[in-house]
Amino acid sequence: MRRFIRTTLKFSIVPFVVGCLFLLGYWHFDPFKVLRTYADFSKPVIVPNRDYVSTETFIRNNPHHHYNSFIFGSSRTMAFKPARWKKYLPQDAEPFLFDASNESIYGIYTKIKWLDQQGIPLKNVLLLICHDRTFTHSSNVDSHLYIKHPAVSGESMRDFQWLFFKAYIQPDFWIRFYGYQLFGYQSWMKGFIQEKPIFYDTRNNTIYMPFQERLVSQHPDEYYKEKKEVFYQRKGQKIDKSTIIEYRQEKMLQEIANIFKKHHTNYKIILSPLYEQVKFHPNDLAILQKLFPQRVYDFTGKNGLTSFYQNYYEQSHFRTGVGDAVMKKVYLGKGKRR
Fold first, then answer.
1. Per-residue pLDDT reduced to its tens digit, 40-83
2. Are 98 and 52 in contact (CB under 8 A)?
3. Which of 26, 237, 264, 235 is nearest to 122 (CA)?
């Protein structure tokens, strides 16, 4: 009997120790950077939850910088640099890039509503609407990459943290994560481990990917040759066959408009110049024009920005030069206002 007990303990203690080390590894490495507070989220090892990074950066730095001007939208807002936007704004403007990956109207709405509830002035706003992203969700999502920060969503921090821990214990994740810790980046880690460094400005939350812009600028022929399969042949301008703005989303847009009116916000609604060259359904465009009269600037479809494929890093994200061109047209009165 004693031998049986000793043998049982011998074989059970190993998985127990491994399990403890596995849990300690989560706490020690904090792979998703959601367990502790960070002054700078730059150079993440893991593909980050951009919504969390943006919100944490705002919460940490707003007492020092007193932000009053905001850029909202998806990762495509990285083409709109706050420092460059500021030259079109009043001298007292303090801009902040309040973006999120795959940002939805729900995410934009809850951020604007939360800022209003916190008593944060909304003097200037640049709001980017993407035909293929903005109206895909009307509520929070159950994904560790895209779930909203609990401070803004008002949802459970426990559930938020549990979602990240569930992602950590998935073999697809931890094999790659600890493989990276042991051997450095390998091609089979793509999609989980950040291949090239990303930097975030700790003041205005600007995203910098210097490796990408340097490669495109210095070696454009080589870069676009490798990406030739990405830039598919387009068949001219298209119009959405069906509407995408649902009733609940229209109500969110209405409340956003009310908050802007309350704050006397100088705002611009930008319809993204996407590579796909698809224009909004006329009914959706009419809703935006009704709620935000004379503030909607339509850069969708086929135009000088979308026709040139070298204005894009790939088929989804346009370059900083496009953002600069859009801001110049919008703020200097040459944009196509709807």
1. 999 999 989 999 999 999 999 999 999 999 999 999 999 999 99
2. no
3. 264
Amino acid occupying residue 247:
Y
Three-state SS string over 116-182 comes to: HHCCCCCCEEEEEECCCCCCCCCCCCCCCCCCCCHHHHCCCHHHHHHHHHHHHCCHHHHHHHHHHHH
* CA-wise closest residue to 129 among 324, 329, 326, 328: 326
Contact in structure between 77 and 97 (CB atoms under 8 Å) = yes
- 269: helix, strand or coil: strand
| Beta-strand pair 124-129/266-271 | parallel
Give the span between the Cα atoms of 330 and 141, in whole angstroms.
33
Q: How far apart are CA 300 and CA 279, in angstroms?
A: 5
What does the DSSP assignment read for 38-107?
Answer: -S---S-SBPP-HHHHHHHHHHHHHHHH---EEEEESGGGGGS-HHHHGGGS-TT--EEEEE-TT--HHH
Compute how many other C-beta atoms are within 10 angstroms of the C-beta atom of residue 14: 9
Whether residue 307 contacts residue 273, with contact meaning beta carbons closer than 8 Å, is answered with: no
3-state class (DSSP) for residue 254: helix
Pick from 83, 80, 52, 64: nearest CA to 44? 52
Identify the residue whose tokens are 């040139």. Answer: 308
pLDDT in tens, 8-29: 545 567 677 777 888 999 999 9
How many CB atoms neighbour CB 17 within 10 A?
10
